[in-house]
Write a structure and sequence with these properties.
It is a single chain. Helix 3 packs antiparallel against helix 4. It is built from five helices and six strands; from the N terminus they run βββββααβααα. The protein has a three-stranded antiparallel beta sheet with strand order 1-2-3, with no helix packed on it. The longest helix has 17 residues, at about 80-95. By secondary structure, the chain is an alpha+beta fold.
């Protein structure tokens, strides 16, 4: 790591701490040449590969925004949405993959959303999985009932 003050290409880590809910590491460094200290933030980046082949950094904000639409009119708080977004991000990072398809991101949303609110889950799943008939809804409801019990319907 280059020193931002004297540009020497060497520095020593003197302290490391977890930051941003454990998704990054804050490091205090000291330059052996000028003795000045500085902080760096290291984050594991996950890239999302879109259908077109374009890649972009994973965005928890995008997940929360898309799920928020499915939760309109439901008793879901912003805090609940933020926790869901964090859970999805943690699950995707846990795969260890540097690149994840949009399909896999959608799959990572479905399970926590089904636990949060079955109606919001059906709304999200109907768009994400491109339901085309009532049979698609019936199959998804049957899967949800099997997973969560009869109270899901």
């Amino acid at each position: 790591m280059y020193c931002p003050f004297c540009r020497i290409p060497d520095s020593r880590v003197i302290d490391s701490r977890s930051a941003d809910d454990g998704t990054s590491i804050r490091r205090r460094r000291q330059c052996p040449h000028c003795q000045r200290r500085f902080t760096t933030l290291e984050a594991y980046s996950v890239l999302v590969v879109k259908r077109s082949g374009v890649t972009e950094p994973f965005s928890r904000t995008k997940i929360v925004s898309s799920v928020r639409k499915a939760c309109q009119g439901r008793p879901i708080t912003e805090d609940m949405l933020d926790r869901l977004g964090q859970q999805v991000e943690e699950n995707l990072r846990a795969t260890g993959s540097a690149q994840i398809s949009t399909h896999d991101v959608g799959l990572a949303v479905l399970d926590p959303l089904s636990e949060l609110d079955p109606v919001a889950y059906m709304r999200f799943a109907s768009v994400y999985r491109a339901f085309e008939s009532l049979a698609d809804f019936e199959n998804a409801i049957a899967e949800l009932r099997a997973k969560c019990g009869e109270s899901a319907g």
